[in-house]
Amino acid sequence: MDVFTRIHAAIHERVTNPNANYYAVPWWEKEIEALTIDVAASIRFFRQECTDEEIWWLGEIVEDLAEKTQSSELLQSMRDRAELVQDKQKRKDAMKDIDDAFDFITG
User: Fold this and answer.
1) Whose CA is closest to 59, among 40, 72, 78?
2) Could you give the CA distance from residue 101 to residue 98 in angstroms, rounded to a whole number?
3) 75 with 102: CB under 8 angstroms?
4) What is the rounded distance in angstroms from the CA atom of residue 38 to the CA atom of residue 102?
């Protein structure tokens, strides 16, 4: 399974399955794992594949990603993608989550 497929699948599970919290490996751990295995691939994901809905949902774990990767480049790629979200409220929500994560790693 390629990294983009793995990332899409992890996010899709969270969005579509209300019982994903109760799996042996909860949805957030799958998302974090999918996005931290290969940070360079995750950056490409945000630049090439990520949907508006996915960037919005990922706001739930962005601080965990920041903590685990310490990658401002990853966060910047998320911010760049979030700026393109069509729905104004979802764009605002995503940008706030990402900005909070930047603050988290920059102190």
Assistant:
1) 78
2) 5
3) yes
4) 20
